[in-house]
Request: fold
Amino acid sequence: MAGWPATGTATAGPAVAEPLLEARGLIKRFGAVAAADHLSLAVEAGELHALIGPNGAGKTTAIAQLAGELVPDRGTVRFAGRDVTRLPIERRCRLGLTRSYQITSLFRGFTALENVALAVQARAGHSFRFWRPAGRDRRLLDPAAALLDRVGLGDRGTVRAADLAHGEQRQLEIAMALATRPRLLLLDEPMAGMGPEESRAMVGLLSRLKGEVTILLVEHDMDAVFALADRVTVLVYGRAIATGAPAEIRANPEVRAAYLGEEEGAT
Reply:
């Protein structure tokens, strides 16, 4: 019949790109408590994806499983097309999956520039015991200075980490994480403990990073989440109850009942 494809002819649709990071059916129990309950989550390349939920929803457990700090009881984690469920933190980091603090806690006695130079050195595969000559190595200090500029600390390089304000220390942690050249950056409450001015600075930084690096953001500051996120996933009792654009999440009655309702008075 005219207009119908010939018998046996298959029409292939466009290839669907695999998410950069995908969790499938994660289960993690601590005794009788299911911190992850068949959790599935997909983060597309280039997006800033927020993971939100009330206290005890399982957000930190989810991030720990994605980063490699916890191995799920069941389920899989895939990154860049590869099953990384059993890979340790350092192997995931080398693949480009980085958690903001997993380089190290800050070296509080070193300057901001020296801290980032150490992270650059670690990315190159060198041990920290070679720090003394590295502290004079322009191959480390120059990229470290560029990273400080990138996070808004270009004029704070000579200040000891211990003397930086709390918000500046969080910016420094992100600079150190960026030194690993991540494809995806896991940020667990980067605005925790910040005042309004510091929070605005962090929102500005994350806004600048959008599109340059894929970000999965766990954050309690709903104003920041809805200002920054391309998509939002809501966790309740270890389950993802909704994923969508910020406007969809705001309008979702199940989400409002489970979590956002408690924020309504603050918006």
